[in-house]
Amino acid sequence: MFRLLTGLLAALLLLTACDEPAETEATAEQPGAAALAAHGEMFERRVLTPLPGVHVAVGYGLANAIMIEGQDGVVVVDTLESRPRAQQALAAFRKITQKPVRAIVLTHNHADHIFGAQVFAEGRPVPVYAHRTTSAHIDRIVNVLANTIYARSMRMFGQLLPPEEVLNAGIGPDLQVATPDLALLRPTVVFDGRMAVEIAGIRLELVHAPGETDDQLFVWLPARRVLLPADNIYRAFPNLYTIRGTAHRDVMQWVHSLDRMRDLRPQALIPSHTLPLIGEDKVAGVLTAYRDAIQYLHDQTVRGINRGLTPDELVEAVRLPPHLAGHPWLAEHYGTARWSVRAIHNGYLGWFNGDGADLDPLPATVRSRRLAEAFAAGRPLPEQARAAQQAGDHQWAAELARHWLRTEPDSDEARQLLARAFTDLAGNNANPNARHWYLTQARELRGDLQIGRPDPSELPDAMLDDLPIGAFLAGMATRLRAEETLDSDQLVRFEFTDVDRVFSAHLRRGVLAVREIATPDPEITIRTTTRTWKRIVTRKRNPALALAADEVSVDGGLIAVSRFLALFER
Ligand SMILES: [Zn+2]
């Protein structure tokens, strides 16, 4: 409460003092900082025992170390980022039990989970479990990209800042890692897919669950229905992209991994960051919101990409709906929706945003110089754009004309000038791809040419038939008019008689979650062949005629099916 009041007071002071020069130092009283500081209260250092025999060392490192107690030994899942931090966590565990460590599980290759492993082995040859690829991922981080990952991690985690400037790291108190303190143990027992083991009388299942990393696994204690989801879920917005730099993360794989966790109906969630959550309904609710948020961003970004939006435009257009944006496990204290949208665009289309003005931009130093000259000249933007054009400075003219057109979308002169600059850029270009791009975009700007969308009903039948039905339904999800379905909760079952497969499509507040499972009590059941369903969706076949010809049978009414179909863009 006190924190809230001081925050409010600070905000009032800021409002009344807005003519004063801005405060340059970051203070913990600013609203964003106050929210982050409040979030950080959970990282107070202690060992929690959310369930008998399950101990979680919170606040000792960026991640948690988890100790599961068996009859004659313990299993340690995740080992923190350094020797000193692991030593402190182990000392705390040793106050609870002296049973020897029988196994170590590394849930994935990230520093905050692996570099304390030697400490937990206590000098004995303890087996180290991990996914088959974890070791190769470690090689890449400690070898190929070491310099830049180090520098970028220092910036992202604030490790070189004065301690008072670090409130917390969103998923833990902070990262403290120094090269001499790395106490790595390489994995000795590796697996693909799934592995069941019994250690110290504890039955464990290790399940490969790509998401935050490709080598991620989760640990499942079947006897007690306890889930250790590693970093695929924690109480902060997921890092679908990490600004310290990472290869593309396939976010739909992440969603599928969360679905496999939901299928287990866990009684307890013991994540490797932030705090445990107990209770089947609570865990199900959190897992569902988390996977829905990721799928929403994925599907709506893809939908926007197909409408031709650039990454900057996608960031404006794709916002999580309020029930997800405001969910307590999705506050943007680690990843953000904005970075995720850009990463999804980048994952599908790479760095080029699709605008000719950005295809071969001026070198950064040249652009800065041009801007300095433009400001010094103090003339309006259109005038400068015209001058660049007349000077034969085509790329600068294109960049200025693009700014002009954004500020005056109805200006025909701006549009013509940009088209002219593109034509000039094409004129002396030896690269056919660039040349065609500029010339086509110039025609589009002049209104001589409009690129339509391919008509799915023109797809040759054989091509449509060859499309796997799972992929076809996933494609439907990326065309959902999410904004019209934010209050919808509807279950549609598909029974495809030709392939003898059943799919459930749960339309849940902006997301169409498609699973190959038979959920009970659907509002609509559609019984047909994959062939007919694809033809109906692509409008090669009229649904009413298909119904009359007995190619489809529907429980729930044809009108309901038509309404359902109307929720998707073509
Ligand atoms: Zn982590």
Describe the protein.
- The chain is an alpha/beta fold.
- It folds into four domains: 2-37, no CATH class; 44-282, Metallo-beta-lactamase domain (Metallo-beta-lactamase, Chain A); 357-446, Alkyl sulfatase, dimerisation domain (Serine Threonine Protein Phosphatase 5, Tetratricopeptide repeat), CATH 1.25.40.880; 456-565, Nonspecific Lipid-transfer Protein, Chain A, CATH 3.30.1050.10.
- It contains 22 helices and 18 strands.
- The protein has helices at 2-16, 31-39, 83-94, 111-114, 117-121, 134-144, 146-157, 251-263, 280-306, 311-317, 322-325, 337-349, 364-377, 381-390, 394-407, 412-427, 432-446, 461-466, 469-477, 530-537, 543-548, 558-565, and strands at 46-51, 54-58, 65-69, 74-77, 101-105, 128-131, 189-191, 194-199, 202-208, 217-221, 226-228, 268-269, 277-278, 489-496, 501-508, 511-515, 524-528, 552-555.
- The strands form three sheets. A seven-stranded mixed beta sheet has the order 1-2-3-4-5-6-7.
- A hairpin with a 4-residue loop joins strand 14 (489-496) and strand 15.
- The longest helix has 27 residues, at 280-306.
- Residues 1-23 have low confidence and may be disordered.
- Bound molecules: zinc ion.
